[in-house]
Structures are given as structure tokens and as C-alpha cells.
Amino acid sequence: MHKTSVPGVWRRFKNRYQIVGTQCETCKTNFYPPRELCPKCRRGGKISEKKFAGLGKIVTYTRVHAAPAGYEKQVPYAVAIVQLEEGPMLTTQIVDYNTDELKIGQSVRATFRKMYEDGDEGIIHYGTKFTPIRES
Amino acid sequence: MESKTGIVGYGAYIPRLRIKVETIADVWGKDGAAIKAGMKLVEKSLPNIDEDTITIAVHAAHNALHRAGIDPAKIGAIYVGSESHPYAVKPSSTVVAEAIQMSNDYTAADLEFACKAGSAAVQLCMGLVGAGMMEYGLAIGADTAQGAPGDALEYSAAAGGAAFIIGAKKEEMIATIDCTYSFSSDTPDFWRRKLAKYPSHGGRFTGKPAYFRHVESATKGILERTGMKIEDFDYVVFHMPNGKFPSVVAKKFGIPPEKMEAGFVVSKIGNTYSGSSILGLTAVLDIAKPGQKILMTSYGSGAGSDSFVFTVTDAIEKKRNLARTTEEYIKDKVYVPYTTYAKYREKIC
């Protein structure tokens, strides 16, 4: 179950933990997950690292009732496409939500969570999920 | 010992899920009202299925950074105190450091001393920063505490944490740490053996020779060393394994309930172990005024207590609203039934 290459995951810690993607300095397009080549500017593009603030809105969502291995205990859970304030869209879990907050256009913020475990003896994968911004 | 260091930023985090004492009592055929009255707590926090000590520590550290307003790359040490580190071998502290964008120029370690590893982390940072070895140290206490099904601990063992950035520049401090004193002894009142899922405890033995002896001795010790009296303090926080124990100590020292109230978070969230007394401290810092004095004494089974004297400074006013308050976390809650609790805490599978 979820046996992942440890070095492969380790290389993406910064992207997963801190929402670090890339930007094409030529056309100012932001990318997350990070791209190494700008699809618009191609050889004319200059890619650099870009950290995103972790604020965005739900573009669309679904509730998962039939989960893949490792996620069974979480059903039903919400998966959404979130558009970050800086532009890129990413697929993410929405957590700690009230039912009425799972809607298109809902403002969300990043939250550091456990993603999954490589069984009982493998590494624990951490990363970013999103949670509704709530006035308290 | 006297100190030249202080708190530059602080942050709390409490997961959103709660379970009521009655809900647990119903499962085991106990009288929920009697347990509530005896332990002086109504409900406890528990982690969501994707939360653990590391995620709690990251959130608390982010909040501390928001308030401190410093570059995380300047933090030279990070210590995470917990008795529920997700890994047996592999530090929680380095995950937290990566998540909050510290540089690689830091020393780190995970600490364990039952419920007082968080306050011990503060002392370590005081030493390193006070000695001029680094500009800032980050001390965190966080736990997702476990209580065996049906055990008395199940009503109180909760989840939460707090983080403190310790610095030595007076103008940046929201509170000075005026003194710390510890009292420790080899007292086996509570323990968890290697690979054991749930802790064991000595029942009534956790009281007089353990909690009370250490909390009272550390508190008495710091009062003697500073020449201060209880009347000199505006707020007092003791470790809160339940609502009863700290109230008994307060009565012995003649501390009026109003000085205990602000930091008395246990009744609403339970015992957050390494996060317990320090979450009481964050709740006090959320409302304290410049010039006010805070006395805090932690307790860790095994056993030891760390006592601290803090003086709140003017900077508190502009920094405290830069992150979510402890009270806001306490109020933002969702109740779960025992079945959900059992599933999330892996009591049934």
C-alpha cells in the first residue's frame, strides 16, 4: 500500500509542505505543481521558484465514498480543485469543513496535515490540505 | 536561575474535534455527571484522522512566527516535546523545521518527559539564546495523548500544542522570562513501555508523591528564589491533568480562583499533555496587560516540574492579534460520537 520511493518524496518536501511552485519570469505565469518549462514561452521562458501564500477558492469539489487503499477510514471525504490567489489550480483534500462550507467559491486556506502512511513500518507522508476560512 | 531571555512570539493549536465526558461514560456504563464533577472537565479535544503531534506542532509554530514577525531562517534551535511523537526513531522537529521554512543551520531534537517536555524545551532554548549561541530558539510542546479504552485517562487525554520563540532582544519580547526553577525526582507514577500502545499509571499514586509534591516544590522553590509572593502575580497556571489537581494546589497556596481562570483550559479541552500548562500560558498571554506577572508550573510524570516567572511587556498589545487566539481554537469545535473517536484513535482497528 502506497509504497513510495523515499528519495522521490523527499525531493518534493518543499513543494508539499510549503506550497512552493515555480514562476515563468518571462510571462509571470505561476505553476503548481512546479513546472520546469513554461508551456507558453518554451525556450524563451525563465523558470524560478515561487512560494504561494496558501489562500484560494474552491473551483469544484466532490465527496469520495469509495476510497483507495489507505484512505478507507476517512470516507466520505472531500476532494476539490482549489485555485490559489496566485493563479495555479491544484487538487487537494478539504478538511475540517462544515457541510455548508463545501461549495464552489468557498474561500480556503492551507493546512499542514498527514497525507498517508506507507503501512505500519514505512514513512509518514505529510503535506498540504485546505480548510474553509471561518470567522471565529 | 535568572534569565536575560524572553518570549518573542507564541502560538497555540487545538484540533477541532471534541468528545464529551458523558459520551465516553455512556459507553462504559459510568456516571458521566459524577466523572465531570470529580475531574472538573466537560469535554476533551482529539485529533482529526490526519492530525498528529507533528501537524499540531507545525500549526502552533506558524502562529508563533506570525506573532514574532521574524525570519524563520534565524531560528538556531528547535525542540519538540511530546510523548506521542509519530516516529519512534526519526525526529518530529526536523519535519516542523522544514514545514515552517527554517534554514538548515539549526540544531534540533525531540524531547520526552511525559507532560512537561514542552516547558523543558523552553528552558533549553533559554540556555542557548541566553548564552549568545544563537538569535532565536523555537520550543514546542504538542501531544495527541492516548488513554486506554475504559481507563480513567480516556476522559482527559487530549490533543493540542503550543510554541514559543525565545529571543534575547528586549524590544522584541512580549514577555520576559525572569526566572525558572525545576524540581525533579525518580517517581514512577505514569509510564508507557516500548511498543505499548497505552500508558499505565499508578492510580492514586499519581497524586500526593507525584503531581502535588513536584508542582508544589517547584512553585515554592521559585517563590523563594525570586523573593516573590503569590500576591505579586496576576495569573497562575499549573499543569492540568484534570480540573481537580491544579485547583487543590491553588487552594494550598491561597491563590484566588480569578488568577487561575484565564489559563484554566483543561475543563474545555482536557489534558493536552506536553501542551497542557503551556496552552494555559498562551491563553493568559492572549489577554494579559503589559507589566502583569505570570507564574507557570508544569508537571511531567516520572517526575518533574518546571516553574517560570514571566513579566508581560508593552509589545504584547501589537503582537497578540497577529494569530488566532487560544480561546478561538477552543470555541471552534465539532462533537463526535464514541464510534468516530474509537476509529480515529485506532481503538477498534
Can you characterise this structure?
The complex is a heterodimer of chains A (136) and B (349). Chain A is mainly beta and 136 residues long. Chain A has a domain at 54-136: Beta Barrel (OB fold (Dihydrolipoamide Acetyltransferase, E2P)), CATH 2.40.50. Chain A is 8% helix and 41% strand. Chain A contains 2 helices and 8 strands. In chain A, strands 6-5-4-7-8 form a 5-stranded antiparallel beta sheet. Chain A has a 3-stranded antiparallel beta sheet with strand order 2-1-3. In chain A, β1 and β2 (30-31) form a beta hairpin. Chain A is globular, with a radius of gyration of 16 Å. The N and C termini of chain A lie far apart (39 Å). Chain B is an alpha/beta fold. Chain B has 2 domains: 6-174 and 318-344, 3-Layer(aba) Sandwich (Peroxisomal Thiolase, Chain A, domain 1); 177-317, Thiolase/Chalcone synthase (Peroxisomal Thiolase, Chain A, domain 1, 3-Layer(aba) Sandwich), CATH 3.40.47. In chain B, the strands form 3 sheets. In chain B, strands 5-4-6-7-1-8-13-12-11 form a 9-stranded mixed beta sheet, sandwiched between helices. In chain B, strands 3-2-14 form a 3-stranded mixed beta sheet. In chain B, α1 crosses α2 and α3 (53-68) crosses α4 (92-99). The longest helix of chain B has 20 residues, at 207-226. The chains are: A mainly beta (136), B alpha/beta (349). Chains A and B meet through α2, β7 and β8 of A and α3 and α4 of B.
- Low-confidence sequence ranges of chain B: none
CATH architecture call of the domain at 54-136 in chain A = Beta Barrel
- Secondary structural class of chain A: mainly beta
Strand content of chain B: 15-25%
Order of helices and strands of chain A: HHEEEEEEEE
| CATH domain class of the largest domain in chain B | Alpha Beta
Q: What is the subunit arrangement here?
A: heterodimer
Helix content of chain B: 25-40%
The CATH C-level class name of the domain at 54-136 in chain A: Mainly Beta
pLDDT averaged over residues of chain B: 96
**Percent range for β-strand residues of chain A:** 35-45%
Q: What's the architecture of the largest domain in chain B, going by CATH?
A: 3-Layer(aba) Sandwich
**Can you count the helices of chain B?**
13
Largest interface: A-B, 21 and 26 residues
Strand order of the largest sheet of chain A: 6-5-4-7-8
Total count of strands of chain A:
8
CATH topology value of the domain at 54-136 in chain A: OB fold (Dihydrolipoamide Acetyltransferase, E2P)
